[in-house]
Amino acid sequence: MGNATIKQLSEILARAGSLLETGPSGLVPTQPHLFELLLDTIETIVFVADTDGRLRYANAAWERLTGFSPADTRGLPNAYYLHPRDQDRWIRFLDASKRDPEGHPVLVLRFLTRSGETVYLEASAQGLISNDNNCRGFVGTLSEVGNRVQQENIREASHRTLDILINNLPGLVYRCRNNRQWTMEYMSKGCEALTGYPAEALVNNKQLTYADLILPQEREQVWEHVQAAVRENRPFELMYRIQTASGDVKWVLERGHGNFYTSGELLGVEGFITDITRERHEQLRLRGDSLYDSASELPRRRYFSIASKWHC
Questions:
Q1: Residues 291, 301: contact at Cβ < 8 Å?
Q2: How many angstroms separate the CA atoms of 268 and 257, rounded?
């Protein structure tokens, strides 16, 4: 039920008192009324609570969802049907609706069924304010949202799993804008191990840009390589050097691609950057070893001959 419906219920109950009247112990039910019979036909729980948050009326949907009959519920403390961790939240929720009658707060709470199972209900409420501006109680609805909560929990668990995987990769996962500063919008925790800077220092260029880390003589090459790939809407792969927070120079391998709207408009660039310094140095060492004789440290004869012919 929407906020407009709750407001209508509040006004009807406040004016007509068709379901409740004020007794020594607060709000108490009156004799069944046509309005009550109509409420029993809907699937959403409609409730009235006293100023202490105890349910004094609930339509038939309450019993269908919780197993507690409305008659039994009126004599039960909240602890019987509210999850222990949500009992204080329930009181604070109702108190908020009392302080702001037009606000219609909404909150998902865990309720307990008669058999001890947990059901997730989304509560919406409004204070019943008398002519002398005192709160007589609360009227509201409880809607079953178990499937929605389950799907949200699954999504959150998936996101946590993905975060764990990403943040344990030997490198940096990123998403950035396609500008010369490579303005970062997201960087995984691998950023600090790779660059020496925490991700927060680079995201949105807070302290420095990612382009600042790339050696000046290689920045244009990196830019042109990525732009060519983006124009052709293909993945890219390139090697270049960065300078870390400690001043060390590292070789990195970057693999990425443009991220496009379905309309074809470029959103940005995303990819993965990893440290290949050790591998790159080993490649350069092996390349050097192939040119020189290890014993004499002189150029190998065939390379020397080729070089001589080249200069002739």
A1: no
A2: 9
Candidate from 38-42, 78-82, 88-92, 111-115 with smallest mean pLDDT: 38-42
* 184-188: Cβ within 8 A, 24+ apart: 184/209, 184/210, 185/268
DSSP 249-303: EEEEEEEEEEEE-TTS-EEEEEEEEEE-HHHHHHHHHHHHHHHB-TTT-SBPHHH
Cα–Cα distance measured from residue 52 to residue 34, given in angstroms and rounded to the nearest whole number? 27
The verdict on 246 and 184 lying in the same domain is yes
In a shared domain, residues 261 and 289: no
User: 277: how many CB neighbours lie within 10 A of its CB?
Assistant: 14
Contact call for residues 72 and 104 (beta carbons, < 8 A):
no
pTM, rounded to two decimals = 0.49
> Rounded distance, CA 147 to CA 234, Å?
40
Domain count, the chain: 3
* 49 and 131 both lie in a single domain: yes
- Work out the mean pLDDT of the chain and round it to a whole number: 80
Neighbours of 59 (CB within 10 A): 24
Are 101 and 7 contained in the same domain? yes
Q: Residue 224 is part of which domain span?
A: 177-275
* One domain for residues 99 and 67: yes
For residue 167, being part of any structural domain is answered with no
- Would you give the distance in Å from CA 275 to the centre of its chain? 29
Which of 68-77, 118-127, 266-275, 283-292 bottoms out in mean pLDDT, i.e. has the lowest? Answer: 283-292
Q: Is residue 37 part of a domain?
A: yes
The residue whose two tokens read 């042109």 is: 224
Q: Are residues 69 and 133 in the same domain?
A: yes
Pick the closest to residue 267 from 194, 198, 176 (CA basis): 176
Give the three-state DSSP class for 31: coil
Domain stop point among 114, 131, 150: 150
1-4 contacts, C-beta under 8 A, 24 or more apart: 1/44, 1/46, 1/124, 1/141, 1/143, 3/104, 3/124
